[in-house]
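Intended use. Records like the one below are meant for learning the mapping from a protein sequence to its folded structure. Do not use them to infer anything beyond what is encoded.
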Amino acid sequence: MVVQPRRARKADANQAQIVAGLRALGIGVIVWNGECDVVAGWRNRNFLLEVKRDHKAKLKPSQEHLRTTWPGQYSIVSTLDEALAVIGWEGKP
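Structure written out for the chain above:
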């Protein structure tokens, strides 16, 4: 299944903070306007991160489909600390 990026949409307010924090630590980041918000790269691994304002926020049907069918890593995060835990960052931000 090929997932094509969609038109730009409004990002959750915490996405900019998470992206800036990851980049400040030298973690590669691509902001993706598709079924996940961020693709992060660290230590030769890639991480698909869906940023939500909180864990009560619902996934869109296409995001839920990706979460349940993607054979690789896909995580839902709402803070920089959660993103760093997914990535396996061992330092302090």
